[in-house]
Each structure stands twice: as structure tokens, then as C-alpha cells.
Please model this.
Amino acid sequence: MLADGSQPGSNGNEQAPVRPEAKIFHHSFAATPIAVRTALRTALARFLRQLSPDEAGTLELVLAEVLNNIVEHGYGETGHGTISLSLVRDHRGLSCSISDDGVELPPSCLARSVDDTHRPEPENLPEGGFGWFLIHDLVEDLGYHRANGRNLLAFRLPLPPVQVK
Amino acid sequence: MNLYAEARSGALVVSVKEERLDAAIAIRFKDRMREVTMQPAQRVVLDLSEVEFLDSSGLGAVVAVMKALAPERQLELAGLRPNVEKVFRLTRMDSVFSLHEDVDAALRKGLRHVG
Model:
């Protein structure tokens, strides 16, 4: 049985194709700045081989803005909560969805119209308010849904199509 | 929050000894910078060459330090890595800071201006 090169212990699995690594990354963590750091590190490590350094930097920045926003504003009042992050590579990029049980996201954060009228002006030396502009600049198909006290934010980080070898 | 400060060529050079300047340490960074920049120096050069990641909270903290030093003193930035430089560029804050390739370039430029 071993003469054809099959491995011992593989009984019943001979027909299974080489299993690609799971495509979905899922991580739930406490809504704290330090746990966000760990989540970013874990997510980046998972997708690093599929991304250029520039794309990896963009992914980390976008996720940091979204996640820290939930920590600061979504759970800011209560001071604790949980965030769930899911990432999956598809043909057009990296689909990201983030859910939490914090307060509702103000509609102004999502309005594409805020883009230039309320964009922080460098000349005024703003110390904040950049987060949502960075998110809008860097992602596509940004959507938000709230149901049963739960926020769901989804968007895609555009990436070149996967190279098929 | 690890910062290292030294006087060089009439400038106070402050090196950020952290891989990340993000929401987790932005407030401590501002506080430490306030202490460190108490020593007199006309120019303050912030060396970011060890910082691999900066988010909008880190950017806001750098802007706050610049405003705290103004108008008497200027905050200049040196050694921005690509992913850090990108945040300055996307927010157009690269237009309000003097950016230098590294600390030596920043100090050379200062000398030229004085001479």
C-alpha cells in the first residue's frame, strides 16, 4: 500500500485534493486598544503572503481606523465590549466585515458627501477627524447595517485579481 | 512610551523608540513630548525612522505636538517609512510639516539655512 507513495494514516483521504488554507479569517476580541493591536498583528500575519508591503500597510491602516473607532466611540461610554472581525479574499480584493454591540454609528460617518466639504483642512492643523476620510479614501462598497443592537460594517479593500498558477 | 532625546547641531532630536505610533499610545506620546521638549532648542526634529505604523490617532498626536511648540518653535519630521509617509500624504498633512529623509539630512539643511 505504501509503494505508490501514499502516506500511512491517510486512509479515506486519498481522493481529497490538496486542501488550500482556509480562506476566511475570523477573530473576536475585547474592545481595547491593546487587543486591537493584537488583532491587527494576527490579521496581517494571516494575509501577509498575499499582499504587497503597500497593500499590507493599507489593510492595517483601514482596520486600525475602523476598530479603534469602535473602541473609542462605539464602546466609549461603557468602556468594554467585544468586536468580531472577518476577512476573506475574493476576486476583487479583501472583503472585511466587523461587528460590535456598541452605540449606533452616526450616519454622517458613512455619508460619501462629507468627503470634501468636511474634510479636515491641513492648514487648520486638525488633531482628529481623519479616520473616516482615510476609510472612505481606501475602501470600496462600504456598507453599514444595524439590527438587534448590533452594528455590522462591511467593505472591500481593492486588490489586483489573484494570480492563478 | 520610549523616546530618546539629544541636542545635536543646535536642534533637539527626539527619536521615537516604538514600532507603532497608534491609538494605544497617542496620549502618552503627547505627554512625553511635552516633558522632553521643555529643554530649549530652536528646532525640534522628530525621528520616526523606527515607526513602522502610524494611524490617525498617532497623526493627531504629532499635530498636537507641533501646535504646542508653535509659534516659537517648529516641529520637523525625519525618516518616515513608506506606510507612515502614506498617512501624511493621504491626509495632505505632508504639506504642513517639513519632512526630511533622515536626521542627518534635517541637520544639514538647518546648517545651510543658518550659514
